Amino acid sequence: MPIAKGLVSGSTPSRQRVDPSAFSQIVVPVPDAISEQRAIAAVLGKLQAAVAAQQAIIDRTAELKAALMAKLFTEGTRGEPTKETVSGIVPISWGSKPLGDAIEPPQYGLSVRGEAAGRYPILRMNCQRNGRVAFDDLQYVDIDDRTFAAYKLRRGDILFNRTNSADLVGRTAIFDDDRDAVFASYLIRMQPRRDELLPAYLNHYLNWERTQQRLKAIATRGVSQSNISAGKLKIFDVAFPTPDEQEEIAGALGAVDQRIAFAEAQRELSHELFAAMLDELMTGRIRVNELDLAALGVSADA
Length: 302
Hints:
The strands form seven sheets. Strands 6-15-11-13 form a four-stranded antiparallel beta sheet, covered by helices on one side. It has a three-stranded mixed beta sheet with strand order 10-7-14, with no helix packed on it. A three-stranded antiparallel beta sheet has the order 12-17-16, with no helix packed on it. The protein is of the alpha+beta class. It has three domains: about 1-30, no CATH class; about 35-85 and about 240-300, Helix Hairpins (Orthogonal Bundle); about 95-240, Adenine-n6-DNA-methyltransferase TaqI, Chain A, domain 2, CATH 3.90.220. β3 (about 80-85) and β4 form a beta hairpin. The protein has seven helices and 18 strands. α2 runs antiparallel to α7 (about 245-285). It has helices spanning about 20-25, 35-75, 145-150, 200-205, 210-215, 230-235, 245-285; strands spanning about 10, 15-20, 80-85, 90, 95-100, 105-110, 120-125, 130, 130-135, 140, 160, 165, 170-175, 180-185, 185-190, 220, 225, 235-240. It is globular, with a radius of gyration of 25 Å.
């Protein structure tokens, strides 16, 4: 545990504090040579810059995706004239109808308490990341085979976040995995009828900023949470082109998602390298003169 965190006192996050007098007594190891201190700072600065550079790529690519979504969901890929519908401006050949007409009956998740271990992972609200289901921070449930069969997730299922804060309600993710898993009660499972509505297209469409605004407008507001019921979801209008054009749109947006995922992976690698190097240099297990400073882009007289 970091030394400073070990000095924290207080029973709740809002009341926690560090005693200034105790903090001032922390012993900081300092290399004798100013040149070594400068070199350490330069090396760590380069690694921090690498993390920041990847984050900048992620941010710029996310902005590109937002602009691309707005163009594709209002203009399509065929250069057609547009028309006004209940769901907004769309190409003239697109259809628009209630979501319930294009999916199987939506299904609420399991009302079972998750545990640290169990037979099956139960995916919750926190298992959504950038429109995809992530097996992160998992909890598990022990359920019988019949219950598992009723709630087992299948590739292409859409998980809709029906209850959360006003900012997060309506967040949607696609399950694109073959691992066994079930889903929790705060989520709704949607299974598109693929002859008219492709899962990847629907997932992108529901996560589009303009659609998210429309979804939040139909949410029931509570003191700290908002809710969108399956009934409201079924009558929510969606716009969609032919399956061929849906596939083109999903493919274009999926390619942007892949670029973001690659940059996120590179950012995490850079962050892990920074954390490891910080620990090694600050404890003296590695001295800066043992590093190839030229390869790191650091001047020897930094």
